[in-house]
Design brief:
Elements (H helix, E strand, L loop, with lengths): L13 H7 L6 E9 L2 E6 L2 E7 L1 H6 L12 E5 L6 E7 L5 E5 L7 E6 L3 E7 L6 H14 L2 E7 L7 H9 L6 E4 L20 E6 L5 H9 L22 E5 L5 E4 L12 H7 L1 H7 L16 H7 L5 H20 L2 H21 L1
Helix pairs in contact: 3-6, 6-7
The structure holds guanosine-5'-triphosphate (GTP), magnesium ion and zinc ion (ZN).
The site of zinc ion has 8 residues, from α8.
Length: 352
């Protein structure tokens, strides 16, 4: 077969190459879009649809083991077939995962193997610090670096007060301000989307994620839309998709999210609330839950006005939500075990 794509441009790093060499006769591909069970894949031989093998289905323990946009997968890329068969997902470098929308206790992978998670928030209608804290916690636990992107600055009349409110919750994440009125405003994103790097645009519907990607592509490739007048937000983007930009980086567009539930994000909560984490070191009890124990430094800071009551409530709510998932889903441990096995298997194969 003729080689037409350089997979390095699609983010295939040294580590993924090493993993992939453990699978003889299979071709490494990247998932570039996903619509229900149907995947679009790219490999050095071109683009093709793909589906997981019967054996893959059979061996799956949890939903997050299925391929997601951004994943590198090992496929049977037969010239004669229209569709490639996916046999294996290579261990993920990062994984932005949430609790799936609706009542079920199931996880959903929003994007895999991303370097940067652009957390997009509209400075006008969508501004909500508590939701941003939630996004930050999940992003920090994903292994990607969160960057806060404040959109539609042209519609915002009190940018300074918005920025100072954000700085109180950003907890180390960079904060960028954009507007689509002037294309040059998007240049602030360029340092994060260099060659070989993948980023994902994540946020509520209508904040302008697809608008930004169109500007970065210098082309109106993606549909963009306005929110319905009842404010319920029709989703314009309906599936997740990865694009290679003229500047060399890759971006993933995602549909707007109405809910972003915690899924195994304990570490991320601690990072997103590093101020509370630092205070907690001074609590009398090592396992203090900051809900009334004597000698609690966190509650003391809240009483003294050093920590806002809303932020403390937000922290406790996220912790509680996360603990619920950890307690009920003991198969998470099983899942980790399985990924460890895959990694070990690949390593041994490579050694031989
Ligand atoms: N005034 C103003 N409008 C913008 C800006 N960016 C986007 N919009 C408008 O906001 C609307 C929604 O933009 P989209 O890019 O479709 O939003 P999205 O985040 O991709 O939405 P979903 O695909 O539903 O998740 C469109 O009508 C855009 O023209 C901006 O910087 N300023
Ligand atoms: Mg969109
Ligand atoms: Zn405490």
């Amino acid at each position: 077969m003729e080689k037409i794509n350089d997979m390095k441009r699609y983010g295939l790093s040294e580590a993924f190459t090493v993993y992939s060499e453990g699978f003889k006769d299979l071709t490494v591909s990247r998932v570039i879009s996903q619509q229900k069970g149907l995947y679009r894949l790219i490999s050095e031989y071109g683009e093709k649809n793909g589906q997981v093998s019967g054996k893959f289905h059979y061996n799956v323990h949890t939903i997050s083991e299925y391929p997601a946009v951004g994943d590198f997968v090992m496929t049977d890329w037969n010239e004669k077939n229209d569709s490639a068969v996916i046999h294996q997902v290579l261990p993920r470098r990062s994984c932005f995962m949430r609790k799936a929308a609706g009542g079920t206790a199931q996880e959903q992978v929003v994007a895999a193997n991303i370097d940067t998670a652009f957390l997009c928030m509209d400075l006008n209608n969508d501004f909500n610090l508590r939701r941003l804290e939630r996004y930050l916690a999940i992003a920090w636990s994903s292994g990607a670096t969160p960057v806060i992107v404040l959109t539609k600055s042209d519609l915002c009349s009190d940018l300074d007060s918005r920025l100072s409110a954000i700085s109180a919750v950003a907890s180390g994440a960079d904060v960028l301000v954009t507007s689509c009125i002037n294309d040059l405003d998007f240049e602030v994103l360029y340092p994060y989307i260099t060659k070989g790097k993948t980023s994902a645009f994540i946020g509520s519907s209508g904040v302008g994620k697809s608008t930004i990607i169109n500007c970065l592509m210098h082309e109106n490739l993606l549909n963009t839309g306005s929110i319905r007048s009842d404010g319920r937000g029709r989703h314009t983007t309906t599936h997740r998709e990865l694009f290679l930009l003229p500047c060399g980086g890759m971006v993933i567009d995602t549909p707007g999210m109405r809910e972003l539930g915690m899924w195994d994000a304990g570490d991320g909560i601690n990072t997103a609330f590093s101020d509370i984490d630092a205070l907690a070191l001074k609590c009398r009890f090592r396992n203090c839950t900051h809900s009334g124990e004597p000698g609690c430094a966190v509650l003391k800071a809240a009483d003294n006005g050093l920590l806002s009551a809303e932020r403390l409530r937000s922290y406790q709510k996220l912790m509680c939500e996360n603990r619920y998932i950890e307690d009920t889903e003991d198969y998470l441990a099983e899942k980790r075990e399985k990924f460890k096995k895959i990694a070990k298997y690949n390593k041994n194969l490579h050694k031989r």
